[in-house]
């Protein structure tokens, strides 16, 4: 039996992918302003609130 998501993935050729991922967790990180540089933002862990990487500095597959 094929569900709607599988049918859409097949028809469009794309699978759902969460990116960027939070290292060691299943949730996505959240963006937040960089307090030291107002022109940049960080990806933060939702749980620990620790900054992970600047937004825009991740490479595909990270």
Described by the principal axes of the CA atoms, the overall outline is elongated
Side-by-side strand order of the widest sheet: 1-2-3
Order of helices and strands: HEEE
- What fraction of residues sit in β-strands? 25-35%
Q: How many beta strands in the DSSP annotation?
A: 3
Largest sheet geometry:
3 strands, antiparallel
State the share of residues found in helices, binned by percent.
10-25%
- Spans of at least 5 consecutive residues whose pLDDT stays below 50 are none
What's the helix and strand layout?
Layout: H1 4-12, E1 30-34, E2 37-44, E3 51-54
Antiparallel strand pairs: 1-2, 2-3
Plain-language structure description:
With 62 residues, the protein is of the alpha+beta class. It has one helix spanning 4-12; strands at 30-34, 37-44, 51-54. A three-stranded antiparallel sheet has the order 1-2-3, with no helix packed on it. It is elongated, with a radius of gyration of 16 Å. It starts with a helix and ends in an 8-residue tail after the last strand.
